[in-house]
Specification:
The protein is of the alpha/beta class and 249 residues long. It has a single domain, classed as Spore Coat Polysaccharide Biosynthesis Protein SpsA, Chain A. The chain is 38% helix and 18% strand. It has 8 helices and 9 strands. The strands form 2 sheets. Strands 3-2-1-4-7-5-8 form a 7-stranded mixed beta sheet, with helices on both faces. Strands 6-9 form a two-stranded parallel sheet. α1 links the parallel β1 and β2.
């Protein structure tokens, strides 16, 4: 099979201290099929200058755009995906958390799933605690996350263990009609994206189009924006999605 060109959106909001310029540069050197677009989401710190520096390491495959104000992770990711859809001929488009809690090297494992399973249209990372995997977590966040994921899956008829892992890649054609409109949710836009995909006419009769792959490593990086209040906002977003996609009001 020919090489697949991969494009990853990296949403950034006040990530000056957490961006690992050397890690991005190293992976781009090792993986010649990978391109990265950083989306500066109206950061108030020195994130934009850091992105300019990172982009100079591989100017042909690392770029950035800057939103005029903070619009939230959902819109940052959507803007980046829309940019890739309009610019360039990529086979796979996804998003990855800027803190690299999941190392960028695991992109290769995701791509291998697409290559070996022609029916797969989306590969999402999963922080499953398996022997030999380095998965760190804060207990209260882990348990709240499990409750949230269970509720989401029950409500929207998903069979997904981890809906919120910040590592997801999709086939280009699958995305083209689901990122045109802004998301109604911000904290759980990952769920909304999958909801939109499941409602595509071409997907309704297709089995096994979504593949969940356990990541080998996930680090609890300090400075995360997901705290107790984030789960409250996630529940509010959940209500929005129920109203929009189930009740249709």
């Amino acid at each position: 099979m020919s090489l697949m060109k991969i494009a990853l959106v990296i949403p950034c909001y006040n990530e000056e201290r957490r961006l690992k310029a050397d890690a991005f540069a190293r992976e781009l050197s090792d993986n010649q099929t990978l391109s990265v677009l950083f989306v500066n989401d109206g950061s108030k710190d020195n994130t934009l200058q850091v992105l300019k520096t990172i982009s100079e390491t591989h100017p042909e495959r690392i770029s950035y755009i800057s939103l005029d104000k903070n619009k939230g992770k959902a819109e940052a990711v959507r803007a980046g995906m829309f940019h890739f859809l309009k610019n360039g001929s990529y086979d796979l488009i996804g998003f990855w958390d800027a803190d690299l809690a999941v190392p960028l090297s695991e992109v290769n494992d995701f791509v291998d799933i697409f290559k070996s399973n022609p029916r797969v249209k989306a590969v999402i990372g999963s922080r499953i605690h398996l022997a030999g995997r380095e998965i760190e977590y804060v207990k209260f966040r882990h348990h709240l996350g499990r409750i949230l994921a269970t509720v989401m899956c029950f409500t929207f008829d998903f069979a997904i263990y981890d809906t919120q892992c910040g590592a997801k890649i999709f086939e280009r054609d699958a995305l083209s009609s689901v990122v045109e409109e802004p998301f109604y949710s911000n904290w759980i836009f990952d769920v909304e994206l999958i909801i939109r995909l499941t409602r595509l006419a071409s997907f309704r009769k297709m089995d096994n189009w979504l593949y969940e792959v356990p990541v080998k490593e996930w680090k609890n990086i300090s400075g995360t924006k997901r705290n107790i209040s984030a789960y409250a906002w996630s529940f509010i977003d959940y209500v929005k999605l129920v109203r929009k996609y189930l009740l249709k009001i």
